[in-house]
Write the structure tokens for this entry.
Amino acid sequence: MTVWLEVGGKKQRVDLGGTPSGGAGSGPMQCSVDGRAVMVDVRLLEPGVMSLLVTYPHAPGRQYRCVLDGDGVVIGGRRYGFEVDDPRSLQGRRGGGAGTDGPRPVKAPMPGRVVRLLVEAGDEVEEGQGVVVIEAMKMQNELKSPKAGRVVRVGAGVGNTVGAGDVLVVVE
């Protein structure tokens, strides 16, 4: 899979190799960054905190502690803004994001904990209205309705731990 990663205003092509032997985040993975081969071993230390061991051929490895911070990552006490241009997410948005017909899910953008539900099943909502608040990395994030309609399902309760991509609310 190829993604474009923009760090500090510079876009780089990142070709991700196969899944590590033990599954995502559990072993080294062969990648390339702008055509340069690199081996990356990613370990999730806790939600939002990763350890990366990066080795290039014929060079010693370097270890980094990375803390996700919204649209940035803190490495060695320095914050870097980043944006991932993943062709899979663009493809998914083309077909499903344009229309307002049918049910539309509100998904958790990152792992966290539900701290407040702002709606219940059956409630009428406006596009952009807050529907749920999750806490991730000690910050609260209000997630909004993608369209005007009626809440047909609430998929998590206050205090529940959620993963990235979990459906929290469905608006029809």
Residues 87-96 form the longest helix (10 residues). The radius of gyration is 19 Å. The chain is about 5% helix and 55% strand.
